């Protein structure tokens, strides 16, 4: 992971972006956590290290990372956006009880893009797939509660 963060920082430097300690910490947190945090969660995780950092600083940096293609913003209805430091092609499965998001890969969806293009004449630029269910921890919690 450290190599990914370092590579991302080098790309930012090449585009003339100054690498502040806060910027480095936000990017590092995103790329290492792999937990799809909200901006507020990132802020809370880093505020002890950077007491003068504001939530606005986090949002501004996230916006810049998104524009640079280093982070994806995940929006789900009215809930707060979540941010994904993994910009490789992958999909998400979301727990309907606790909101946990996990990544998974499935390489064959490129065929869906191709088929959709052939059928509609569209030039497909990408797709997004989300699966919904209940995570293992919530299932186990429910089983435990039913036993009591």
TrEMBL record:
Subcellular location per the Swiss-Prot or TrEMBL entry: Cytoplasm
Protein family per UniProt: Belongs to the Fur family.
Residues where Fe cation binds: 127
Protein name: Peptide ABC transporter substrate-binding protein
Binding site for Zn(2+): 95, 98, 135, 138
PANTHER family linked: PEROXIDE-RESPONSIVE REPRESSOR PERR, ZINC UPTAKE REGULATION PROTEIN
Cofactor dependence: Mn(2+); Fe(2+); Zn(2+)
Annotated GO CC locations: cytoplasm
Alphabetized InterPro entries for the sequence: FUR, Fur_C, WH-like_DNA-bd_sf, WH_DNA-bd_sf
Alphabetical list of CDD domains matching this protein: Fur_like (cd07153)
Record's keyword annotation contains Transcription regulation: yes
GO terms, molecular function: DNA-binding transcription factor activity; transcription cis-regulatory region binding; zinc ion binding
Domain of life: Bacteria
Keywords, in A-Z order: Cytoplasm, DNA-binding, Iron, Manganese, Metal-binding, Repressor, Transcription, Transcription regulation, Zinc
Natural source organism: Paenibacillus terrae
GO biological process: negative regulation of DNA-templated transcription; regulation of secondary metabolite biosynthetic process
Keyword set includes Transcription regulation: yes
Cofactor comment: Binds 1 Mn(2+) or Fe(2+) ion per subunit.
């Amino acid at each position: 992971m450290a190599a990914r963060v370092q590579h991302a920082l080098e790309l930012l430097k090449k585009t003339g972006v100054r690498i502040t300690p806060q910027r480095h910490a936000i990017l590092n947190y995103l790329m290492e956590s792999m937990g799809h945090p909200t901006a507020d969660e990132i802020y809370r995780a880093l505020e002890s290290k950077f007491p003068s950092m504001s939530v606005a600083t986090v949002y501004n940096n996230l916006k810049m990372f998104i524009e640079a293609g280093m982070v994806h913003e995940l929006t789900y209805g009215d809930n707060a956006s979540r941010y994904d430091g993994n910009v490789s092609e992958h999909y998400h499965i979301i727990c309907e009880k606790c909101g946990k998001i996990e990544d998974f890969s499935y390489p064959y969806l490129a065929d869906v893009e191709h088929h959709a293009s052939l059928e509609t004449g569209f030039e497909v630029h990408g797709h997004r797939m989300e699966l919904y269910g209940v995570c293992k921890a919530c299932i186990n919690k429910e089983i435990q509660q039913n036993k009591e």
